[in-house]
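[Solved] Which block belongs to which protein?

Original post:
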Amino acid sequence: MGTELGKFLDVLDQRSLVPLDCKAVLLVGSAARGWTNVRSDYDFYLVSGTPWPGDDRDSIRLPLDSPTIQTEAFYADGRRWEMTYWLDDQIDQILAKVSWVEFERDRAAGQMLVSHEQAFLERLANCVPLAGEEWVSRRKQELDSSAFRSLVVARSLAAADDAVEDALGQVESGQMESAVLSARKAFGHAIDALLEQHGQYGSYSPKWRPHRFRAAMPSGISFARYWRLETMRTFDEKCPSDWINEVLTLCQDISLKVEV
C-alpha cells in the first residue's frame, strides 16, 4: 500500500493538482478502506488555506462562510480520479456544527450538516493521509472529541423509530406491501445506528453496509443473521407478517441497546 500511496501523490503533483499551500491530502472512500473493485473511483480531499482556482462550473455550494468547494476529475490507469478541495477554515466551521454545545441545544442536529459536510467528517474518520499527517491526526482528535458520533446515531435511531411506527400502523391497516417497505427502511436505519455507534460511518452509501458490519462486528447480532434479513432470504410473500415482526422486533431491540 505504501508504494501505491506514493504513486497517488506523484500523479497529483505531476498534474499540478496539489495547492501550493496544501495542508493535507487525504485518500478517502472505498480505496482508503481497502474495499475497491476494478471499477471503483479514487477519491481525494485536499485541504489548503486559500481557494483552489477551479472552474465555477465544478463548484459545490455549502452553508459556510466560505461557501464553495471545488472539484476536479480525470481518468488514469483505467479509473476516475476525483479531487475535492476544502479550505482549512471550512473544516473549523463544520466541526463547530457538531460541538457538544450544539448537540445539547438541538438533538435533531443532523439537519445542521448538509450531505457534503457529513461525508467529509465520516471520511475523515477512516482516511489515509498522503500528506499532512499531523493535520489529519489533529482533526481526527477533534472529531473524536466532538458530538458527531452521538449526532449521527441519534439521527439514525430517530429515522428507524419513525419507520417502525409506519410499519406497525400499516400492518394494523392491512397494508402489508407498504409495511414490508417500511420495515426494510427501519432495518437499514437501525443497523446504521448500530454501526455508527462503533465508528463505522457511511449511511449515505448503503452499498458498503456489509463491509462496515464486518469492520464493526457488533455484539447482539451476527453477520449471518444481519445478512439473512438484509437479503430477505426468509421472507414469505404468503405470510409477510413473520418477516416484518422479526425485523421490527430487532429494530426495537437495537434502539433500546444503542447508546447515543
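(Second protein starts here: sequence line, then its C-alpha cells.)
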Amino acid sequence: MGSIGRRGAVAAGIAALVVPLTVALGGTPAQAASCTTSTGPNQKQVEKFLGRPVDGKQSAADCKAIRAFQSKHGITPTIGYAGPVTWGVMDLMNKQKAAGKTPNKAGKCPTNKGRIACVDLTRQLSWIQDGKKLVYGPVPVRTGRDKYETRTGLKKIGWRDKNHVSSIYDVPMPYSQFFDGGQAFHSVGVSMWNPPGSHGCVNMTTAAASKYWSLLKTGDDVFVYGRKPGT
C-alpha cells in the first residue's frame, strides 16, 4: 500500500504479473518444456469441460487441449496437467455461466439502493442493477488474491480517473473508479481467470470497465460480498 498520484489514495489493484503456481507432480519442475504424461486428479472433469473423450486417462491430445487452456488464461505450470488449479478455473467458469441473467437470484446484493454495482467474490462476477432490474452484466471479474483480498461491504465510488497510472506498480489502470481506498474497478490486459488474482482491485476487461465508466458516477453505491476461492 502507499499513496497514489495527486489524490493520495492507496493503489492495490493490479496483478498483471503473478507468482507462478506449482503443482505436485512427483518432482516434475514447475515449468517443463513438454507435456506431462501424468493423469491428474481432476482428469475426467477437465476432459468433460474441454469436450474431450472422458476416460480419465491422460493422452497426448488431452495434454495439448489442456495446455492451450492453461496458456490462454495464464495458468502455470503450462504442462497440460489436469490438477486442482486448472479445474478450479473451469469450475468457476461453469458457475459463472449458470448465473445467466439472474446473478442476484439469491438477493444478496441490495435492491433498495437504486443504481448499484454488485461484486460477488465467490463467483467472481459483477453487474450493475437498479433496484431489481439488471442494467448491465453479469461479467467475470478478477479480484484480490490471498492476503490482498477485495474488502467486502457497502461502499461508494469516491473518485474516478479514466487514465490512471498506479504510483506503486507503475502500471496503467484504465477506467479507474475507486470505491474503497485504493481498491477500484479498472481494466487489465490479462485473462479474468488468470490466477491468483489482483492486489485488491476488481479487474475487468476493457469492454466491461468502459461500460461501468459510462453507467456509474461518483457517489454511486458498490456492494462487495462473498469470498474468493483460495482466500
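Accepted answer:
You had them paired correctly. Confirming on the second one: The chain is about 20% helix and 25% strand.
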